């Protein structure tokens, strides 16, 4: 369930993060190949972006959030995500915030369980919520793995 955040005003840094995700997909938009952009802000302040990679075999497509997370680990040695957002670029040029898919929710929560996500609620308002709120009863292995980059 999406939290009721009607009274929450997005901070300027959240608006900037949304704009970074939009800029990423606007600059790389290619119908049927690159239609989702993502941006994440690390707790250190860096913003990292990514665009999704579509494939002829849909199951092997890679989401924009996963690309951004991989870039954060590669470029900054960190997956300490403060906030993440993804946007969808339609064929008519409209860009809207979208929720992370189930696999991205799992991936983000594995690497940064404290992360916040910017999503749209049922009224199309942008809300900010903990990633763990989007993944109730998260699957856990019998072993404890805490990701710590080198």
UniProtKB/TrEMBL annotation:
<dbReference type="Pfam" id="PF00383">
    <property type="entry name" value="dCMP_cyt_deam_1"/>
</dbReference>
<dbReference type="GO" id="GO:0004126">
    <property type="term" value="F:cytidine deaminase activity"/>
</dbReference>
<protein>
    <submittedName>
        <fullName>Cytidine deaminase</fullName>
        <ecNumber>3.5.4.5</ecNumber>
    </submittedName>
</protein>
<feature type="domain" description="CMP/dCMP-type deaminase">
    <location>
        <begin position="12"/>
        <end position="142"/>
    </location>
</feature>
<dbReference type="GO" id="GO:0055086">
    <property type="term" value="P:nucleobase-containing small molecule metabolic process"/>
</dbReference>
<dbReference type="InterPro" id="IPR050202">
    <property type="entry name" value="Cyt/Deoxycyt_deaminase"/>
</dbReference>
<keyword id="KW-0378">Hydrolase</keyword>
<dbReference type="InterPro" id="IPR016193">
    <property type="entry name" value="Cytidine_deaminase-like"/>
</dbReference>
<dbReference type="GO" id="GO:0072527">
    <property type="term" value="P:pyrimidine-containing compound metabolic process"/>
</dbReference>
<dbReference type="GO" id="GO:0042802">
    <property type="term" value="F:identical protein binding"/>
</dbReference>
<dbReference type="GO" id="GO:0005829">
    <property type="term" value="C:cytosol"/>
</dbReference>
<dbReference type="InterPro" id="IPR016192">
    <property type="entry name" value="APOBEC/CMP_deaminase_Zn-bd"/>
</dbReference>
<keyword id="KW-0862">Zinc</keyword>
<dbReference type="InterPro" id="IPR002125">
    <property type="entry name" value="CMP_dCMP_dom"/>
</dbReference>
<keyword id="KW-0479">Metal-binding</keyword>
<comment type="similarity">
    <text>Belongs to the cytidine and deoxycytidylate deaminase family.</text>
</comment>
<dbReference type="GO" id="GO:0008270">
    <property type="term" value="F:zinc ion binding"/>
</dbReference>
């Amino acid at each position: 369930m999406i939290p009721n955040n009607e009274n929450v005003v997005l901070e300027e840094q959240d608006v900037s993060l949304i704009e970074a995700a939009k800029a990423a997909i606007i600059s790389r938009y290619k119908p049927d190949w690159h239609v989702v952009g993502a941006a994440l802000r690390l707790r250190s302040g860096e913003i990292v972006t990514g665009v999704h990679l579509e494939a002829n075999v849909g199951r092997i497509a890679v989401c924009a959030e996963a690309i951004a997370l991989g870039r954060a680990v590669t470029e900054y040695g960190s997956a300490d995500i403060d906030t993440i957002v993804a946007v969808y670029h339609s064929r008519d040029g409209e860009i809207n915030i979208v929720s992370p898919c189930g696999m991205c929710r799992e991936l983000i929560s594995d690497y940064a369980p404290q992360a916040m996500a910017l999503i749209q609620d049922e009224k199309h308002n942008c809300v900010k919520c903990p990633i763990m709120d989007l993944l109730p009863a998260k699957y856990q292995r019998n072993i404890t793995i805490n990701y710590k980059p080198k």
